[in-house]
Amino acid sequence: MEYMPRALIAEITHRCPLHCVYCSNPLEMQVRQSELPAATWARVFEQAAEMGVLQLHLTGGEPLARRDLTELVAAARGAKLYVNLITSGIGLTAERLGALVAAGLDHLQLSFQDVEEATANDIAGARAHTHKLAVACLIRRHRIAFTVNMVVHRENLDRLEKMIALAEELQADRMEIANVQYYGWALRNRAALLPTRPQLERSLETVSAAQERLKGRMRIDFVVPDYYARYPKPCMGGWGRGMILIDPCGQVLPCHAAGVIPGLQFDNVREHALGWIWQESSAFRRFRGEEWMPEPCRSCDRRSQDFGGCRCQAFLLTGDAAATDPVCTLAPSHGLVEAVVAGVNAGAGAGVATSSPGWVYRADPV
Amino acid sequence: MSRPSAGCVPRLAAGCRFSDAPGQGDMLLVPEGALRLMGVGRKIVERCDGVRTFADIVGELRAEYPALEPARVEEEAAKFLERLHEKRALDF
Questions:
Q1: Are B88 and A218 an interchain contact pair (Cβ–Cβ within 8 Å)?
Q2: Phi, psi angles (nearest 5°) of residue A10
Q3: ipTM over 0.85
Q4: Where is B27: in which H helix or E strand?
């Protein structure tokens, strides 16, 4: 086949004890009763491995909210996939972690909302921070890869050095520092989350110094906010080129946010084989390749590097999913992003965290 | 970070392993990625088993590639392991 998927993101549930104000789940979430049973997931993992998928990312919601998670990990490892669990740690005990590792878990990513308890709990809408610290100690008793995920934004970016020190203290192999991306819940809270330019510049210096200092001990991957970028991110490595996302009820999407684009029809693993969906599903074909591209993308030298950016962001900001991603400085609609960035930087004393942003918290599916 | 010393014992880092899926055996799986290792690179990493020292590995490579200059074998192997170490794919 022309494109081979390499990673499968399995959103096995949308249930979650946290209510983070930047959650990447869709605003309309799937309920527990519609979740795929473990046997269907096991079949899908086998199909994915046959298609060339190497890595499975088990995420949610909170994957630990599923009682059969250990069974899912065993099925994935049995299908010869590399198994990564992305979790808040809520619901993880020493016994449960031991069972997951015995079932074949390769890598665990533990998310943190901040380095300080009060602000971390404020973002999560739950008292979770102290428990996460305890969970991190449990993880280091096992020989699996351990990543600390830190989501950063205007309210916490000034504490970046302390965050890196925390990940070091927890003996992470890797740290992922990801600026919030503005979809779903985060787009609703964008005015309070987007960092200022001076904050961003300081953070780049901090990360670069830490990467040099920690070389060979802890790898740091940094995701910058694309509103400040000159060119767009190569979202998902290009639409339908290497990644597949399956939501809790079995719908197959090219990315986390694709559900926002009107008119896309998503096929379901309950009705079709994953290989067929990858090749034939109209949603995957819609923006695959370069046929759909408008100018300036169509004739741009960078089209094979960033694929015109993110389709969901193009839709959310311009109303047209086939437009050039407006974060691109070459996009006709770039003024939309410039206006948002200007607004955030206009406040005097840019970089100083505000007191009470008035968050819109992620709701839980009923 | 420094080069591997003669006496150090390299091994794959936690959560890093070769794929056991059919046809994917040359893929070294690491957190958030995969490295395709072929030829000498693959032979070096296969020997990073937590038992052999770096000196052992270099000795075996010299025996396998007698046409290559011995100093160069060590230099290239050290550089290669250092790169994997920086990616956190290897401990030594």
A1: yes
A2: -105, 105
A3: yes
A4: strand B27-30
Contact B32 A221 (CB under 8 A): yes
Which one of B19, B29, B90 makes the best mutation probe of the A interface by having the most chain A beta carbons within 10 Å?
Answer: B29
State how many domains chain B has.
1
What's B46's domain CATH number?
Answer: 1.10.10.1150
The answer as to whether B19 is a domain residue is yes
Kindly state whether residue B5 falls inside one of the protein's structural domains. Answer: no
| Residue in A9, A47, A82 to test binding to B, most B beta-carbons within 10 Å | A82
What phi and psi values does residue A236 have, to the nearest 5 degrees? 55, 20
Distance CA B59, CA B71 (A): 11
Q: Residue A126: which of A21, A272, A53, A47 has the closest Cα? A: A21
> Could you tell me if residue B6 is inside a domain?
no
Q: What is the pTM of this model?
A: 0.94
Domain that holds residue B54: 11-87
B37 inside domain? yes
Side-by-side strand order, sheet with A252-253: A219-223, A174-179, A145-152, A107-112, A82-87, A55-59, A7-11, A243-246, A252-253
User: Taking an 8 Å Cβ-Cβ cutoff, which residues of chain A contact chain B?
Assistant: 6, 49, 52, 54-55, 80-82, 84, 106-107, 143-147, 173-174, 215-219, 221
Query: How close does chain B come to A92, measured CA to CA in Å?
Result: 19
pLDDT in tens, chain A (366 residues): 589 999 999 999 999 999 888 888 888 888 899 999 999 999 999 999 999 999 999 999 999 999 999 999 999 999 999 999 999 999 999 999 999 999 999 999 999 999 999 999 988 988 899 999 999 999 999 999 999 999 999 999 999 999 999 999 999 999 999 999 999 889 988 989 999 999 999 999 999 999 999 999 999 999 989 999 999 999 999 999 999 999 999 999 999 999 999 999 999 999 999 999 999 999 999 999 999 999 999 999 999 999 999 999 999 999 999 999 999 999 999 999 999 999 999 874 444 444 456 777 877 776
